[in-house]
Here is the input.
Amino acid sequence: MRIGVIGGGILGAAVARHLLSERPDDGVTVLEKEDRLAAHQTGRNSGVVHAGLYYVPGSLKARLCRRGMGLLREFCAERGLAYRRCGKVLVALDDAERARLDRIHERALANGVPGVRLLAPAQLREVEPHVEGVAGLHSPETAIVDFAAITRQLAADAEARGAKILTGAEVTGIRQDGGPVEIATAAGERHAFDKVIVCAGLQSDRVARLAGDGADPRIVPFRGEYYLLRPERRGLVRGLVYPVPDPRYPFLGVHLTLRVDGEVLVGPNAVLAMAREGYGWSTVRPADLAETLAWPGFARLALRHWRTGVREVVGSVSRRAFVNAARRYVPELTTADVVPGPAGVRAQAVGRDGSLVDDFRINRRGRVVAVRNAPSPGATSSLAIAEHLVGELFKD
Ligand SMILES: Cc1cc2nc3c(=O)[nH]c(=O)nc-3n(C[C@H](O)[C@H](O)[C@H](O)COP(=O)(O)OP(=O)(O)OC[C@H]3O[C@@H](n4cnc5c(N)ncnc54)[C@H](O)[C@@H]3O)c2cc1C
Here is the structure.
């Protein structure tokens, strides 16, 4: 069979590799619009291998995150890639957050996350001496990696098994009417495949629609901005320090994250991006913005959550407000301790009814299987999502 994979982020690379390990005689081609792999979400995230604390037991997120973590650990060990089990603490600041922490603890146990334990304030300080809170939840298995390096290795493995990885290949048309799936690219090339998997991240709804899939849900791009701790202040954290997330949102709140290169990220926030791939306020694509604003789900979402939206924008334009969010957990942190860092944009699917789609979503239309929602922990889960997608593609 000839199989096309659209998108060269971690999901596309993982799918290509998995396909060829299961079906070594197939022809696999990855089409990536940028001039390199991992240019968007995969190369612009926190680099955290999530252990599976938060997710609804039995959901795709819960199952694929747990399996994905194990597969990723094995893959990094086999290939000599960095995988550092630095652990993470969630910090509760008051009784209401402590109650939410208890519920996350229950979920973590239901999801089979190993080693999680609740911490009293003194125990919290043993794990993270500069962190303060009324309670903590420790997950010693949570790890850090470089997802872009992992993606390049996955793609190299797929190539060694015969995959073609084409960069600068933007898919602009998909036709399927009974016969092979015909793909057109912006450069005027034509490809014919027996089956296609779409892993197009921030463009996933548009590409899925090219294949005849529905308009609902739509991707709404939420930018996440980071600061970096100055090198002399990196000792403020030993591992990963997270707030107790607000259950109304799929985002985890501003956290302090150690990276495998030794940097410490502070962030990300969550503001509406003015372009699907808009990494700063100055990048505006009117067509992207108009599409977001015209989506009925966006108006409903904005009406429900405008207060949070305003707070996030304030944190985006004011370093003081941003740092204040993190200082609640690390009281010694000051605005002088940070410098502006990178930014990423999350592909968050929003339903017509204004709901933020929580679970991973995968749709099938004829010979095309499309990922419609794969936010965090999508990178952690990537090797397990790849197994799942290939299973869907060959279901009947
Ligand atoms: C700020 C931020 C922090 C995050 N933190 C974490 C974390 O700590 N841990 C974790 O597990 N997950 C995290 N995530 C989520 C994680 O990054 C994603 O789940 C994962 O990268 C999704 O991979 P992907 O391959 O689907 O998407 P992407 O990496 O976005 O790849 C999609 C690719 O498709 C290509 N493409 C799009 N349209 C076309 C087209 N028409 N033709 C050809 N190619 C096309 C794009 O150029 C892109 O390379 C975070 C995300 C963000 C943004």
Summary: The first strand starts at residue 2 and ends at 6.
